[in-house]
Amino acid sequence: MNKILIANRGEIAVRIIRACKEMNIKTVAIYSEVDKDALHAKLADEAICVGPADSRKSYLNMKNIIEAAYITGADSIHPGFGFLSENAQFAKICEESNIKFIGPSSKVIELLGNKSNSKEMMKKAEVPTIPGSEGSIKGLKDAMVIAKKIGYPIMLKAAAGGGGKGIRIVNSEDELENAYNIVKQEAKNSFNDDELYMEKFIQNPRHVEIQILADEHGNVVHLGERDCSVQRNNQKVIEETPSTAIDNKLRNKMGEAAIKAAKVANYASCGTVEFLVDKDKNFYFMEMNTRIQVEHPITEMRTGIDIVKEQIKIAAGEKLKFKQKEIEFRGHSIECRINAENPSKNFRPCPGKITGLNLPGGNGIRIDTAIYEGYTIPANYDSMIAKLIVFGVSRNEAIAKMKRALEELVIEGVDTNRDFLFEIIRNPNFIRGDFDTSFISKLQQADSKKI
User: Fold this and answer.
1) What is the 8-class DSSP label of residue 160?
2) How far apart are CA 208 and CA 224, in angstroms?
3) What's the rounded Cα separation, in Å, for the pair 443 and 450?
4) 251 a catalytic residue
5) Is the dihedral of CA 260, 262, 263, 269 positive or negative?
């Protein structure tokens, strides 16, 4: 690989550019008209505009992105996360255009992108799955029969879903028809695919995912787990590794299951196998993400392995240089997602100009961001503007470092969720490791009762 075009923006584009620079690989940034002063466009060796602010006409514009690769002579495309990162059609166009897509093949993305099909594949590989429909639901009557069989509460999910969209919890048959129609329409609007599937709703689980690396020569390793249970509306807020919910025996079982999942799918790249863990320590396959994850830095902090560099090496056809037994896990790492939003106003996004900025530093502190003083956060994209990552020899030390880092963080000119994150980090239940996916909703309910 001589030149990589990064088909993304913001902190992940900056993250990829930095990895490429360290590998002596030339980079091309793409940007929309509103992003002409963005940091990723400044840091890359070359930058090219691919359209107006509307992401459909720029960061999702496959034709313009491929043309940008041809114009600049890029031989590879790294999609980052979001946008086109899990788009099988885009991966296929890259393959047909003789441009290396840095990720799994289009066939694998398509296979794992359909949640109902991937679940059936995992069953055959004897990876534990949540009880539910055998493939997609054939209609409302079929949904009623399946729900009665597995028992309420159930979850209706878009087969092509992701990012917390196209999901509804249904507590009784009386709610099913209305929920079915709503999710079907949501799926059509969000993914242009109204296929649905059903799962038993696991109440108050932990959301634990396993990071894997798989090369094109059949070698697969896992890099341990990340606990992503602190969520709001199915969107992750804080992640950490290791998880306080599992012991070494369960950790090894989940790691082995993740490797099985990658092998049965003939997977080659970095990827994440997501599981739910119930109160009885049973774990169930949810989905496999076929891209770099937002929360990958905490795994890097704990293992010392640069996941983006490994992803690029795998795409170049290299074999993994380490075996499972050679991977060392040490310490504890936590990540907070810093968003330009106002928690007191229902987390309303807050674009605008950053008039003052102080980023925390010191031993064990990492911040992945694309913001700078004087930068104007556009209103057109996701509100995440930074990721604050800490590493400590123990969980208590990591929490103490995160508290200190949040105190040091100053972003003036826009509202952020900094104080909201600080409230979580110092919450006694979080400190004890006593939380699940309902943690934030319970916290908000308790706060509303005080008012």
Assistant:
1) E
2) 10
3) 11
4) no
5) negative
CATH 3.40.1030.10 fits 206-450, yes or no: no
Using alpha carbons only, how large is the chain's radius of gyration in Å? 21
Give me the residue label for tokens 């002596």: 24
CA terminus-to-terminus distance, the chain: 58
- Rounded to whole angstroms, how far apart are CA atoms 259 and 24? 31
- Single-letter residue type at 174: D
Section 405-429 average pLDDT: 97
300: enclosing H helix or E strand: helix 296-303
Concatenated DSSP letters of 228-270: EEEEETTEEEEEEES-TT--HHHHHHHHHHHHHHHHHTT--EE
Contact predicate 119/129, CB 8 Å: yes
pLDDT tens digits, 205-255: 999 999 999 999 999 999 999 999 999 988 999 999 999 999 999 999 999
pLDDT tens digits, one per residue of 268-315: 999 999 999 998 999 999 999 999 999 999 999 999 999 999 999 999
Close Cβ partners of 443 (under 8 Å, ≥ 6 residues apart): 423, 424, 427
Tell me the domain boundaries of the chain: 3-102, 131-200, 206-450
pLDDT of residue 326: 98
CA atoms within 13 A on the CB side of 269: 26
Domain covering 131-200, topology: Dna Ligase; domain 1 (3.30.1490)
* 3-102: CATH architecture: 3-Layer(aba) Sandwich (3.40)
Q: Which of 291, 302, 337, 418 is labelled catalytic?
A: 291
Task: For Cα atoms 35, 113, 219, give the angle at the middle one, nearest 5 degrees.
Answer: 100
Residue 451's pLDDT is what? 39
Q: Counting beta carbons within 10 angstroms of the beta carbon of residue 124, is it exposed (0 to 12), middle (13 to 18) or buried (19 or more)?
A: exposed
Q: How far apart are CA 412 and CA 431, in angstroms?
A: 29
Query: What is the DSSP secondary structure assignment for residue 132, as one 8-state letter?
Result: B
Amino acid 449: pLDDT: 57
What number of CA atoms fall less than 13 Å from residue 417's CA on the CB side? 24
